[in-house]
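User: Can you help me understand a structure? I only have the sequence.
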Amino acid sequence: MKFTKWIYPVLLGFTMTAFAACSDDDNKGGGGNDKVALKAVNDVDKTGVAVKSTDTRATFSVYAPVKPTVTADQSWVSGESTEPSKMNSISQITLTIQPNTSTEARKANVTVTAGGSSLNVAVSQEGVYVEPEPEKPDWPGFTEEEQALLGLKAQDIAAQYVAGWNIGNTMEVPGGETGWGNPVINEDFIQGIKDAGFNMVRIPCAWDSHLSDRETNTINPTWLNRVNEVIGWITERGMYAVLNIHWDGGWLENNIGSAVDPELLQRQSDYWTQIAKRLGHYNEMLMFAGLNEPNADGEAGMAALLAYEQAFIDAVRATGGNNSTRTLVVQGPHTDINTTDELMNKLPNDPAGDGYLMAEIHYYDPYQYTIMEEDQSWGKVSWFWGADFHVAGSSRNATWGEEDWMLAQFEKMKKKFVDKGIPVIIGEYGAYPEEHYTAQQTDADKEQIVKSRAHFYSCVRIYAAETGLMPFTWDTGEIIDRKDGSIKKQYMIDAIVGSAN
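Assistant: Let's start by predicting it. Here is the structure, written out as tokens:
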């Protein structure tokens, strides 16, 4: 009880003080008191009024001696006021606002006048909101033009083709890059490919010889990281990359058979699941190719090949993300044009829908000119190819497979695939260099071999362009130096990329 009696005067004193303060405010802004100055409540004259594009009304308050007048310098806003309250001299200002149909924001100035003084309040209105286009990823090293190519289907990618290159006898070597005499791939070499005029690079690659656990088909993560590094060097320079499962001892492509082997099917699925997961961060600049040169024969072999290719596609698509619509490349039987034309009458099913598959064939016709090692009892190695490049009386002139043959072969693939909206890559093509048979050649022979060979590569380029095919030159270090990316044979680059006819 003593505590109650003691606190009462204190509370009473607080109440009286508060009442006095209120009375003082009334005296400053009492209704009808002409001494009250025009003043914005809550500093609205400093902060302004912000409204959305769809807003039609906004309010703020002022202390005013008399009812204020409200004017605006823009026609989309108008205002009216109430009489000041007798209790606290506050007048409410109501703004009527027209919705903004433009995407551009706009501003107006509202002037409130009362008792001979005025104040200005800025009104800002947002523009209509438009959902922005999704931002494309920032890919280091890409120009704006190159970034505009992201998100493409197979036909769109094919339309960007300029020239294709193979890094041969390197990453497909079972067990390691240097096993067949080439140095490890470096950035100078990749830059040399770019500088020479190529914008697509095929990377033949081994996987079965790079396992950390064969029982679980687990690829060594160190190898996956190394492949990722090389692809990064290619794509960051604005070039497309095509990564495959190559020969690699022939574990799959030499064993297609007439029936599907469950163990090989599982291995194909397991490898591609891991590859796709590790490299899924790349956009459409990276394409996957399921095999290399699958030795499938007859209808039964073709059916088995389709099953292995289906396992490849399903494994990649199941990893999601960028792999959901990544362009995938499937190979014809033996990657031979005639066999593919005869047997490959359908493609595997693609869960992504139409437009994300390419077909692949290789071109090494005529065999005696392009890759025959030495003379046989049934025929000799050809040195000279092309009707205008034969040497009179020589037994080394090509006897078949020249210009007319090449064009006719390419036209088969155009009719089979390209005309139906399915792009085709010539994943490999080439012919032995002039040095291959040096001991047997005269100086005149060597000069004609160079001319003939340039003509062969030029014809591949020209006829492929006419038929919509995309050739990738096979090279093992002969044309571009693997150490520093310098060009070793300019005449070959001229023939391949188009500065020679």
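Now, to help you interpret it: Residues 430 and 474 are 6 Å apart (CA to CA). Confidence is low (pLDDT under 50) at residues 1-34, 134-142. Let me know which part you'd like to focus on.
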